[in-house]
Write a structure and sequence with these properties.
Blueprint (H helix, E strand, L loop, with lengths): L8 H9 L9 H29 L1 H8 L3 E7 L6 E2 L5 E14 H4 L5 H9 L10 H26 L3 H47 L2 H14 L18 E8 L1 H8 L8 E10 L7 H4 L2 E3 L2 H10 L13 E3 L2 H5 L1 H4 L4 E7 L5 E8 L6 E4 L3 H24 L11 E7 L5 E7 L12 H9 L8 H4 L9 H11 L8 E3 L12 H6 L4 E3 L1 H7 L2 H11 L1 H10 L34 H8 L9 H12 L3 E2 L5 E5 L10 E2 L5 E2 L5 H16 L6 H4 L7 E7 L8 E8 L6 E7 L5 H18 L14
Parallel strand pairs: 2-10
Antiparallel strand pairs: 1-8, 2-3, 3-4, 3-5, 6-7, 8-9, 10-16, 11-12, 11-21, 13-14, 15-18, 16-17, 19-20, 20-21
InterPro entries: Beta-lactam/transpept (IPR050515), Beta-lactam/transpept-like (IPR012338), PBP_dimer (IPR005311), PBP_dimer_sf (IPR036138), PCN-bd_Tpept (IPR001460)
GO molecular function: carboxypeptidase activity; penicillin binding
Subcellular location: Membrane
């Protein structure tokens, strides 16, 4: 039968069909082919493994030790501000901060970081030996402890204090880690919940066959669901953190010089602006502070191809005073360094690409010895006035709120001293607390107000020096023609003299010299009426009133010079005859700054040369500069057009007698035996029931003038009684500091 054993009907059928090969007849071939199919892929995998282990191992080890390069700026030092006598008024000081990498201070240490540190100590072949890896980890832990011990020894502190700082940093970073991962977990949980709800709703609507097809399709098309993600590593874990700020320079250098002893430690270098003299001329020196966004954008628009001073966000820029005017000299240019870090963010190498360039030094004309004394005497005078106000409130209804003194060289315009009171500490503006800043802003005396350049007050009788110039140059008034002063001009109740208001008498017969000496208002009223307001306005304009003097600090104001004949197109207040009389004695709508009055006295003293008041003397190049030549700063000077030497000589004669003659308004309070002083008192009426402003302006020595000065006390009262003594103390301070030498004059009073 066909189904018996050994039935050969299949063989017969195959032979009949012409198929002579049978697999069952060659079992060895079948086994060989099956083995070949299995062995060839295994050989390929084994060869690749062998190549990786023996031939290409260094490539993977190099990936393990792969580094990243970044470029960081090196802070530069801004130039100093130095006085002419060598005292440093502003400078940059280096601040060194001790920083540690988070992994080196973390406790307990991160296991992955610890293992990676251990592997770097082993050869590639040794890294597969578990015992050697564990031994290397122990070495890392020992080195870590040794680091803190050596660091505490170098910094002369205890390990406990360093560990306390480390714990504070770790606590702060762990708070960040917890917050970041908590938000990530909430976000992931919300996403998983949404997916689960969608799947549940779809399952309820599908039958079993569709459910199977959905599972099959998802298995082929969707990525596998991963287990819960690992903890997010935040940037703070791979960064350096400050453990101590402002460490001494020698300690910072000792740590930086031996990086092998202090792995994971970095010294961060920064510069801070300091003002070592604190309250010395703060309004003039100004301040450097962080550049604001508006200024930065303005510079970017001004220099679209690149800022020549390379200002970026966070840099300091001059905000006020000399710091702002000479910022282009003081500004230092940052350097550039390349920083190489490992995969953990640790710095392993730095390279200087471009050295930083320090800013140049600016030398000022200030004599700090005189400046100190001037500021102190101004503070003391104001304090005495305030105490007097408390004792006599009926007379002093509005106590003196501030004052100003300006001293300048009559030949060059160099300012040797300038004081505004009250003053403030420049360092306070660097990092003030909200309470400190609010206290300064709420101070009714306005300590931040730069009075020398921005305080605009009526000059009072100090302006009579200019009116004297105008009347002589007009040719309409003879300075030697006698004038009878009755104490008032037209009516006893209007346009009166001080002595008439208080004593009911006039000055009697006067000439120009005596009118200046005794400050007769009526004489100048009559002179102004004779020559007209246009003449006074012309010479006031010629001598720089109504416009800034051009001093090299920003924000100067020019005062107000009323124009008696404005263009018809301008809508201004009408000019009245009383305005002419008021302007002649420094009243009406006329306002000036102390700097303008000091320059007026300089013009009278130097035979008519108009100087530009200034503070900067020269620029000294930094050590990194290619030149070592001091750059002198020049300022324009010009002679006042149309003024005659005889005119100024006659005005000087009157100003000298103000102090030297027994009937002069400054004789009792200003005169000194050691040196001759010329000047003019001024009592500027303020109105509104407030006290008058007290002025005294002049020059010294009277015969060969060197310095012109102006003293003004806001709401101080009488110029002779209040400003005069301050002027006397000022000249005595100039003698004490050797700015002036005694002349021992022998004057004969007229």
């Amino acid at each position: 039968m066909r189904n018996r054993l050994g039935n050969d009907h299949m063989t017969l059928e195959n032979e009949a069909a012409g198929q002579s090969f049978q697999v069952d007849r060659l079992p060895g071939v079948r086994v060989f082919l099956l083995g070949l199919i299995l062995v060839v892929p295994l050989l390929a995998v084994s060869g690749r493994l062998l190549f990786i282990q023996m031939m290409n191992a260094e490539h993977f080890y190099s990936q393990f030790g792969k580094t990243t390069e970044s470029f960081e700026s090196i802070p530069s030092r801004d130039g100093r501000i130095v006085s002419i006598d060598g005292r440093v008024l502003a400078l940059d000081v280096e601040r060194f901060d001790l920083q540690a990498h988070y992994r080196w201070l973390e406790e307990p240490p991160n296991p992955r970081w610890l293992k990676q540190q251990a592997l770097t100590l082993l050869e590639p072949v040794e890294r597969r030996n578990r015992e050697k890896v564990e031994a290397a980890q122990e070495k890392v832990l020992a080195r870590r402890q040794q680091l803190w011990d050596e660091l505490a020894q170098v910094m002369k502190t205890s390990s406990e204090e360093l560990q306390t700082s480390c714990r504070d940093v770790q606590q702060r970073v762990e708070t960040i880690i917890e917050s970041v991962n908590e938000r990530a977990a909430q976000k992931e949980g919300a996403s998983s919940s949404d997916d689960s709800d969608v799947e549940t709703q779809a399952s309820a609507e599908q039958d079993q066959l569709q459910k199977f097809w959905t599972l099959f399709k998802d298995a082929l098309t969707r990525p596998p669901r991963r287990p819960r993600r690992e903890r997010i590593v935040v940037r703070e874990e791979l960064d350096y953190h400050t453990l101590a700020s402002g460490i001494p320079r020698e300690i910072a250098l000792a740590i930086s010089a031996h990086p092998e002893r202090f792995p994971g430690i970095h010294i961060q270098v920064a510069t801070l602006r300091e003002y070592p003299q604190k309250t010395l001329a703060p309004h003039e020196i100004g301040i450097r502070h962080r550049i604001d966004e508006k200024t930065l954008k303005s510079r970017q628009q001004r220099f679209p191809e690149g800022d020549p001073l390379d200002y970026k966000e966070g840099d300091r820029i001059g905000k006020m005073g000399v710091e702002r005017t000479y910022d282009r000299y003081l500004r230092g240019l940052r350097g550039l360094k390349k920083v190489v870090r490992n995969r953990q963010g640790e710095i392993i190498r730095t390279e200087i690409i471009r050295e930083p360039k320090s800013g140049d030094d600016v030398v000022l004309t200030l004599n700090t010895g005189l400046q100190d004394q001037v500021q102190d005497l101004l503070d003391e005078s104001l304090q005495e006035l305030r105490e007097g106000t408390e004792e006599q409130p009926a007379e002093q209804t509005d106590p003196a709120s501030g004052g100003c003194i300006v001293v300048l060289d009559v030949r060059t315009g160099a300012i040797v001293a300038t004081a505004s009171a009250p003053r403030y500490d420049l360092n306070l503006l660097l990092h003030p607390t909200p309470e400190e800043w609010q206290a300064v802003l709420n101070d009714p005396r306005r300590p931040l107000f730069p009075r020398a350049t921005q305080m605009m007050l009526p000059p009072g009788s100090t302006f009579k020096a200019l009116t004297s110039i105008a009347l002589m140059e007009s040719g309409k008034v003879d300075p030697d023609e006698p004038f009878i002063c009755r104490g008032y001009l037209d009516r006893p109740d209007r346009h009166r003299d001080y002595i008439y208001r208080h004593y009911g008498v006039g000055h009697n017969e006067l000439t120009l010299t005596r009118a200046l000496r005794e400050s007769c208002n009526v004489y100048f009223f009559q002179a102004a009426r004779t020559m007209g307001p246009e003449t006074i306005h012309h010479w006031a304009d010629q001598l720089g009133f109504g416009k800034p003097t051009g001093i090299d600090i920003p924000g100067e104001r020019g005062g107000h010079l009323p124009d008696p004949s404005p263009p018809k197109s301008e809508k201004k207040s009408p000019w009245y005859p009383g305005d002419t009389l008021g302007m002649a004695i420094g009243q009406s709508r006329l306002t000036v700054t102390p700097l303008q009055i000091a320059r007026l006295m300089a013009v009278v003293a130097n035979d008519g040369e108009m100087v530009v008041p200034h503070l900067a003397h020269s620029v000294v190049p930094s050590a990194e500069s290619s030149t070592t030549t001091r750059q002198m700063i020049s300022y324009p000077r010009r002679y006042v057009s149309g003024i005659h030497p005889g005119t100024l000589e006659r005005v000087r004669e009157g100003l000298i007698e103000v102090v030297a003659h027994p009937r002069g308004t400054g004789y009792k309070t200003v005169r000194l035996k050691e040196v001759t002083i010329a000047g003019k008192t001024g009592t500027a009426e303020n109105g509104g029931g407030k006290n008058d402003h007290a002025w005294f302006a002049g020059f010294v020595p009277a015969q060969r003038p060197k310095y012109a000065f102006a003293v003004v006390i806001e709401h101080g009262g009488s110029g002779s009684r209040v400003a005069g003594p301050v002027a006397q103390k000022l000249v005595r301070a100039m003698l004490d500091t050797s700015v002036l030498q005694p002349t021992q004059p022998k004057l004969q009073a007229n």
